[in-house]
Fold this protein.
Amino acid sequence: MNPPILSHLDLELIVDVPLTPEQLFEGWTNPDILKKWFCPKPWKVAQCSIDLRPGGLFSNVMQSPEGELMPENRGCYLLIEKPTRLVWTGILQEDFRPNPIPQLGFGFVCDLRFTPLAQGGSRFHAVVKHTDTEGKAKHEAMGFDQGWRLALSQLVELHQSLR
Amino acid sequence: MNPPILSHLDLELIVDVPLTPEQLFEGWTNPDILKKWFCPKPWKVAQCSIDLRPGGLFSNVMQSPEGELMPENRGCYLLIEKPTRLVWTGILQEDFRPNPIPQLGFGFVCDLRFTPLAQGGSRFHAVVKHTDTEGKAKHEAMGFDQGWRLALSQLVELHQSLR
């Protein structure tokens, strides 16, 4: 059962993709694959570290087109149900240690579901839950919907290029 | 292996008690038992709701000696390893939804370990991890050490009275 969506706090993205739940799950949890798609080009993921257990580190560093490294994002996993669900947050880091309020001014919990479709492929369903309405609004204004769609399309392209 | 303690962010309490890990675990996770010891008398726990799964609700309402009900504390469980470990937080609530910054001005993650001792009884080990040094200092000044010791002694007395 899906948890309720609160429209003033949550951003939601639903996209049907020609990938299996296993491919989506691996794309999100294998650092070598994640680095190839997670950031809309010409930005890129310069570093990624993943310790796939509850309380395990999920860390990445973004790099600008000019080569500038952004501050490290350090989060952790909350729930792992391979290959259909993955919940992580930047509000807590390794071993569930609370993170300081992030530079962007908002934290969130990302609840991902990868559900197989009868006709093949999967439904990618992300619910991104923010601490307050301002955080949700900032994230939305930063281009959440476009950015996450673009990144996801890069994962699809990556798999198509491997065929 | 125990995670590192950060002295500027964490409060730690280690107490050896004449209870089994199972009794400690049940004391922390059975609402009917928790209500009898969790709050140092003459305060009490007026309501307690527990959904013992990762992301499940851990809620309680304290009541003053004059009968005044405090705001509900809504948290959730992060890690459940019955009967030796329990991690919960008030930074997130049900279904890992982020909580607003709490009224007290600080949030924390509570990491509990219940380890059997060779001579009988158990070692109760709590590490309470705060978002920032101010939060840790506030929690300490509120009487963390004395309050948690007193509550724990109430759980021990409860079991002794049942013998």
In short: Chain B is about 25% helix and 35% strand.
